[in-house]
Amino acid sequence: MKNHNIYTLGIETSCDDTAAAILLNDKVLSNVVSSQDIHKIYGGVVPELASREHQKLIAPTVNTAIKESGIEKNQINSIAFTRGPGLLGSLLVGTSFAKSISLGLNIPLIEVNHMQAHILSIFIENNNQKPEFPFIALTVSGGHTQLVIVRDYFEMEEIGTTLDDAVGEAFDKSGKILGLEYPSGPMIDNLAKKGDPFTYKFTKPRVAALNFSFSGLKTGFMNFINKESLANNTFVEDNINNICASLQNTIIEILVEKVLLAVEMTKIKNIVICGGVSANSSLREKMKQLGNNNSWNVYFPNIDYSTDNAAMIGVVGYLKYKNSITTDLSSCATARYKI
Does residue 93 share a domain with residue 142? Predict the structure, then answer.
């Protein structure tokens, strides 16, 4: 394919964020995320409500992305959409909308794996540094925790995954136990900055090889809070900073130990940390420190491209378009979609 300016429209609707972005090659021109505040009432994402909100928000979100990019819709060369994994109802909205635009503008349709997009978000031009292949990707989000060897843009091998809860879910459900609003991860991060991470010790699960488990930690944390609150009904209120710092420290230690093991097993010293939880300030600090101490190259996407967004979908669309990898209209949304 000739080297020329390629405009990609990216659409992301895998969970509870309706997102659209316009990219010029690998450069982000606009990146619009419409969050669904309705889920805060329920302390977590309600799938049926999520899909209804996507239906309301997707057209105005895409229109805003096109307007903010400064281009006309007839300049768009291809449309990339999240096929999965995610909530099926939410994915169906984005998939159907992308197909209709593809038909209406007569432009190629490109399906994208959401987890692959988190990893490849590091190649968005707006990021400061980009890794060389091969590298290990630690993908940490509300729905997934994975270790992946990335040998090329589209050659990836999962070498570790969570056996139950994802790390983001562990943060959010622990936050709910503490009475924090959903999503709790960013709130725990902020409160932890004012606390002592060594005040309380929580049991780290023993999981073979490079897999993860967070359900036991979550149960142990709940039992600890219930026990202490029975003895002192203001325990959480009095110790919230130290509780959050200790919990966060335990979770990050679990992640760090698995990355250390992955490097030891693979001998690969280029590390990318991606996904929503990669925005956690303590995780960034610990992984950068680990990299400095071990002569690793550690990379993080910019914060704007860490949580669910459409720019990461767009950059995968651009890379696939350059390699003539497109999709036809028979492509279906899928809740489970392996890398």
Answer: no
Residue 276 belongs to what domain range? 131-300
Q: How many CA atoms lie within 13 A of 234 on its CB side?
A: 1
DSSP 120-150: HGGGSTTSS--PPSSEEEEEE-SS-EEEEEE
pLDDT at 126 over 70: no
Token pair 């956690």: residue: 280
Whether 267 and 183 map to the same domain: the answer is yes
C-beta separation of 113 from 337 below 8 A: yes
Count of domains forming the chain:
2
Sign (positive or negative) of CA dihedral 178, 85, 162, 312: negative
pTM above 0.85, yes or no: yes
Q: Report CA torsion sign: 55, 143, 337, 139.
A: positive
CA distance 178 to 167: 17
Q: Are residues 19 and 55 in the same domain?
A: yes
